[in-house]
Amino acid sequence: MYPKFFIGPMSKNIVDSIIQFSEEESTSIGLIPSRRQVEYCGGYVNNWKTKEFIDYVKARTSNIILERDHSGALQGYKEDDGLDSLRADSESGFHLIHIDPFKKYFHLESALIETINNIKFCNSINPDCLYEVGTEESIRKYSHSQLDMFLNYLQHDLGELFGKVKFAVIQSGTRLEGGKNIASIDEERCYKMVTICKKHGLLSKEHNGDYITELDIKSRFDIGLDAINIAPEFGGIETSCILQQIEEYNRKDLFDEFYNLCYNSKRWKKWFPTEFAPEIYKKQLIKVCGHYVFSTDEFLNIKKELPQIDQKICDQIKKKLKLLHSI
Questions:
Q1: Mean pLDDT of all residues in 18-33
Q2: Residues 127 and 174 in one domain
Q3: Three-class DSSP category at 265
Q4: pTM as predicted
Q5: 227 and 243 in one domain?
Q6: Residue 251: DSSP 8-state
Q7: Chosen domain end from 208, 231, 254
Q8: How far is residue 64's CA from residue 146's CA, in Å, rounded to a whole number?
């Protein structure tokens, strides 16, 4: 039985809080590191390498499903074919690998061929690997009929190996920008895609479930959606705790240091429109991309000025997890 919620490990605090919560509630939760977050050569989350991260989680709980999110070409920091990363993912013990070549292979036919090649490659290294296929709307939008065609060909060409595909990504309109989910759910589209997944014997999963209400998430599950990914929202929860503490201590110097770290990282450019004015909306910029700098020495020095901040962060993350757990 797979969990309904797969959460991005935006920081070590988030990973530790999820592990604690899963143990306390005896519940299963998914962790979905992207290649930029955790990679065979290191990522921005606690500077973890792939095997280090997997070993860390597995040593502390058996309740966590570990899934590589958005594997494949061009999904890391450098332009590559993604195979070195996939090799490390297969060898290191991920339970699931999301095969997503759509960033490079935009056309369905070429993405299909690359998906098949990637699955066969991973299977040759570790026959225990299971898979998720498809992509989110912000990378490549597709209709329910295109998803059906994609899965039909995938099933035909993979043969028995298709039995190791467990999830397909459905799209119902979610899209993140500036720390908000700016799209509204298309219930009919959601239902049609969920139905396609069931037709092929797959579980349905939607990405970008951030910044929407618990009621909106429940409505998706009521339609038949099996699982949903939530990532930047948890980084935002941690960042908000830090900003609140800085404000309570009236430490404008720490705020300015935090802002400069975030601004100079340039990670904010991914999440805002081109007309966004960072010097006017400093706090908003920090909230959206603060988690990218949590592992830097400069930020760790800021945290030293904020007593008990990690416990406050953990409490807030668990509060959000409890809300999700109640759905």
A1: 98
A2: yes
A3: helix
A4: 0.95
A5: no
A6: -
A7: 231
A8: 32
